[in-house]
Amino acid sequence: MIQVEGLSKRYKNVEALKRVSFEVYAGELFAYLGPNGAGKTTTIRILTGLTKRSSGDAWLNGHHIEDNGIDAKRSFGLVTQTINLDQELSVFENLDLHGRLFGMKKRERKEKIKELLEYVGLLEWKDALVKELSGGMKRRLTISRALLHSPSILFLDEPTVGLDAEIRRRIWSLIKRIQSDGATIFLTTHYIEEAEFLADRVAFLDQGKIVAVDTPQNLMERMGVWAVDHWNAEGIKTRYFRSRKEAQKFMETQSPGFTFRRVNLEDAFLAFTGKRVSS
Amino acid sequence: MNGLFAVYLRELLILKRRIKRQLAGMAVSPLLYLLAFGYVMGKEVKFNDHTYLEFLIPGLVAMTSMTQAFAIATDINIARFYWLIFEEFQAAPLSNVAYVAGEVFAGMTRALLGVWVILFLSLPFGVILHYGFFFWLSVLLNSFVFASLAVSLAMLVRSHADQALLNTFVITPMAFLGGTFFPVDRLPGWAQNILSLLPLTHSSQLIRASAFKSSIEPVSIAVLIIVGALSFIFAYKSVDKARD
Hints:
The complex is a heterodimer of chains A (about 280) and B (about 240).
Chain A: E1 2-11, E2 14-24, E3 29-33, H1 40-47, E4 55-60, E5 63-64, H2 69-74, E6 76-79, H3 91-101, H4 106-119, H5 135-147, E7 153-157, H6 165-180, E8 184-189, H7 192-198, E9 201-206, E10 209-214, H8 216-221, E11 226-232, E12 235-241, H9 244-252, E13 258-262, H10 265-273
Parallel strand pairs in A: 3-8, 3-9, 6-7, 7-8
Antiparallel strand pairs in A: 1-2, 1-4, 4-5, 9-10, 11-12, 11-13
Helix pairs in contact in A: 3-4, 4-5
Chain B: H1 2-17, H2 19-41, E1 46-47, E2 50-51, H3 52-70, H4 72-82, H5 86-90, H6 96-122, H7 133-156, H8 160-177, H9 189-195, H10 199-211, H11 218-238
Antiparallel strand pairs in B: 1-2
């Protein structure tokens, strides 16, 4: 599990992360939702040893991220936002080197690589050079690499950014499968539907601060269940209702131009921060 | 040890993929020097009973082992800034010593390859020198110094462009002034004193002395060991500075 206490990061005059605290329980999928620049990647980079913290503490499976960095690093797999594969090496070579970095024995590496490539549907591409793969395949390869040493925690930093809708859904089902196999997953995203579909709990991050943490359902229900949007010259105005009946009754009294939908996490995020995740 | 080997193996796999281009690249400059300076002036100019060609080849060995070992910095920077592979190492349970040693060994391997290319290219010129224990020890020490220096500087630079500047301001002047193309002892005393601070000056002298079967300067060996050890420690300390 992941435990974070008062984590801060300052870059010269910018405070990217402001005393963030949270806990992710074993087997949970925890989504960190916020617009670009909110501090999502900074948090993951600190937790995985890529960036130095300015203050605060964090533990991964009880190992402090810096004082006991080597043990902390053994317990997680990381999928970074940008594809960081050796383009000139083959799929197998990329995975094999990762296994060696984590001290896996030759036989174990060979078996696990085969198993994982089957898992992500890339077995027939084993000997292909990474530069020959499509974006979605590269993403699946980075996920399989992160799983190779059987980590109990998986960090996914915007794992579907830049991918088309179909590939995104395939990655989602892969993530669900990884979680059902017992991994604790920490996911950053700025896609509302991704957090809604995947997360057990969601943290809203805005300007380096966590403004809310709860299940997606609870966060959304704070607003209501149904929403009616009205577009006018000033933008969209939304009203929330506890029941469909109330929403429909309100719609009947209004002129055309109103639309009716279920409340989503974007509404909740807007209520907490005054802005949209996509802003 | 696993981590060290993984870092080293990665560089070797990349080298293997590019081997033809790499060998061709390693051959171009030495071949031009051999033709322009060695072949044309080689038989006319003499230094202490040795033809200029005989004088030049150990110098080229010293220069190439330096440039090829230092070139590992470029590979590290490509991995760091372009492919972001360095993040894979940073997030792995890998000690700084293992990372630095893996990259330094990779630099030394490149340097040895470069030296073999020169020795091969010098064959048609009919120059026969002595390539004994001290020759190879000097080559290894020189490549260790410059590979360690390369790793430390690669950790400190903030962009690929900075790396190119280091090559221009550090490696190129050293390549020409470090006793590769002319004997340093023909320069004025003050210039000799300054050039004796450069590790390449000591490497050139050692490599040339061993190739000519002359007496070896223990001071030069000591200088290379000390500079190499300091560079390695500097590289070790610099790895953490690469984190933002």
